[in-house]
Amino acid sequence: MVRIVMGRVNIRSKPSTDSGPYTYSYVGREAMRHGEAFNRLVSELNHLDLRDEREAAGEFAAMETGASRHEAILCRARNDEMFALDRLRRWVAISVPNGMSPVKAVDDVQNLLRTVADKGGIDSRLIIDVDPVARPRRVIQAIEELGTVVSLSVEVKLPNPGRVWREERRRMVALAAETYEETYTSQQGINLDRAELEQLTQGVETGDIEVAAESATGSWSMRDEPEEFAPEPHWEKAGTAALLLAALAWVVSNWPMSGSGGAH
Fold first, then answer.
1. pLDDT of 163
2. Lower Cβ count inside 10 Å, N or C end of the chain?
C-alpha cells in the first residue's frame, strides 16, 4: 500500500529589519496578508486540480470517513508524487513513491507550490513552506525509544501570525532571522524528563518546530520520519487519491489542533 506522509502549508513573511515591533496590530496585518496569499494559492491550484480523480476518490473517502469532497484539491508534483491539500485548514497529505524519501516528496510539493505562487503573483515578500508535522506524543515516543540521548536539536521557525510566540521568536523578528536552532549535547546523556519533552515539542503538530535526536545506537528526525497515515486494512484496494483524501479526514478529526482557515 502506498506510503502517505502528513504536512502543513505554512506561509511566512521573509525576514526584514524594518518589520517593526511585534504588536497586536502587526499580527493582525500579517494574518490578513497571509490569509489572502493562501486563498490566492488555492485559487491558482484549482487549475491543476485532478478533478475527475478527486471526484471518483471522494466517493470512497466520503463513505469510509465522512470526508467532504469539496474541501480538498488533488494535484501531482514533479516526480509523480500525488498530494491532497485541505482548502480550509492547510493540511497536506503526500504520497511517497517507491524508492523516494519523505524529505524529497515534501520538498517536491513545496517547490510546486512556490512555483504556482510565483506565477500567480502572490506577494513576493511571503514564503510558501510545506513543513513535516507530527503529533507531540509520537515525537516524544521516538526520542524515548532511542535510549540515552546524547544530542537533541530543536529548530524553531516563525509561526503563522496569531500563534503563540516564544521569546526567541520575538528575537528572530528583531534580527530578521528565518529560523532559530537550539542544540543540546552531553556524552553522558541529556536529562530529558517527560515534562521537558512536552515543552520542547510544542509546535511540532503545525510544523513550526522540527526536532531531531541522536543516541549512541541510533538517530531520529522529524524531517526524515514525519507523521504517516495508517490506512485501515480493508482499504488495501483503494487508490492513492482515495487514501490521500482519507488521510486529510483523519488529520482533521484526530490532530491536536486542526487549524481554522486561511488566516492561521
1. 47
2. N
